Amino acid sequence: MWNVLLSFSGLVALIQLLFLPFFPESPPYLLLQKGDKAGCLKAMKQLWGEGNYHTEFDDMMKEKAVTKGTKIMNVLEVLKEPSVYPQLSIMLLLLLSLQLCGLKIFQTASLHESIIPYVSLGVAISELISIIFCSSIIDRFGRRILLWGGYLLMALILVLLETSLLLSDQFLWMRYCSVILIFLFIIAYGIGP
Predict the structure, then answer these.
(1) 29-58 as b/e: b if 16+ CB within 10 A
(2) How many alpha carbons fall within 13 Å on the CB side of residue 4?
(3) Is the four-CA dihedral 171, 173, 176, 180 of positive or negative sign?
């Protein structure tokens, strides 16, 4: 039944695509990209209801003044920009090492082959829960605190993960701690970065 489970995300995407025309454009997009002040205010009222949004509008106008003259690049242009190569290489290295690290940990934990699909499903559910949790608290705490907190949690979890891997030969239960730490790492990543 994995094909049904995987097709579920396609169904959700199709529903989103069908309802997309009924939603207004993003107010920052309308103001910053299109320069449509009236459309921006109209979208803010449609999204947030009646109210006074002059503070938010003024913040967007300040952002527009700061970014004036800055060229907006597409993904291909960003990939061709030499100044972002160090950041891209670090990000790719981190993502690849995490993928290999997860495989090694699941092998070290000696999970039965029949359990691995459930572990993969658990990883996906952990990521979904963390994204939902993050979207509900981002307005309260702000992006900076979530980024710092997420990175600090990830660093702490990686230290604990390394410790559990070193002790996994002496204590068999440490192998399962490694798997749990992978789940916690994914949640910390979803909440922060």
Answers:
(1) ebbbeeebeebbbebbeeeeeeeebeebbe
(2) 1
(3) negative
13-69, pLDDT tens digit by residue? 788 888 888 888 888 888 877 888 888 888 888 887 887 777 888 888 888 777 776
Can you give the pTM of this predicted structure? 0.49
d(CA 71, CA 91): 23
- Please name the residue ranges forming H helices in the chain: 2-19, 27-28, 37-48, 54-67, 75-80, 85-108, 116-141, 143-167, 173-191
Q: What is the pLDDT of residue 154?
A: 85
Two tokens at 191?
A: 């909440």
Give the whole-angstrom CA distance, residue 51 versus residue 42.
Answer: 11
- Cα 183 to Cα 21: distance, rounded to the nearest angstrom: 37
Phi-psi region of 49 (alpha: psi -120 to 50; beta: other; left: phi over 0): left
The residue type found at 89 is S
Both structure tokens of 188: 């910390």
Q: Which residues contact 40 (CB under 8 A, 6 or more apart)?
A: 27, 28, 30, 31, 57, 60
Per residue, the 3-state secondary structure of 59-76, as one string, reads HHHHHHHHHCCCCCCCHH
- Kindly list the distances between the CA atom of residue 48 and the CA atoms of 27, 107, 132, in Å, as whole numbers in the listed order: 11, 49, 20
